[in-house]
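ok, trying the design again with the full structure, not the truncated one.
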């Protein structure tokens, strides 16, 4: 029941929002973004991010999305040098973190 109220409230907020740059921002692979992530921040952080986004020539949502994607790739993807990889016809693996790199 409370999820219905949250959905209705978010829909109402979304209808009253003015897009800052474009109505349907593209994801990293060119597909339209469809999911939302709501975060809470301090006023000081909000202003810092807003200024940084403006200096970068992008909307704050694009700026935050790029920062989050950068952090996720550093934490979730293998960052080891190519010489630490073992390649087979079906996939490559990192010999240091044992991650499958391609398939």
């Amino acid at each position: 029941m409370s999820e219905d109220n949250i959905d209705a409230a978010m829909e109402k907020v979304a209808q009253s929002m003015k897009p800052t740059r474009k109505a349907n921002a593209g994801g990293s692979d060119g597909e339209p973004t469809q999911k939302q992530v709501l975060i809470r921040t301090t006023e000081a952080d909000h202003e810092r991010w807003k200024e940084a986004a403006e200096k970068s020539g992008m909307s704050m949502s694009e700026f935050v999305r790029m920062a989050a994607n950068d952090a996720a790739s550093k934490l979730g993807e293998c960052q080891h040098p190519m010489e630490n990889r073992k390649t087979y016809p079906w996939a490559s693996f990192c010999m240091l973190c044992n991650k499958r790199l391609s398939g």
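Keeping the full-length input from now on. The mean pLDDT is 81.
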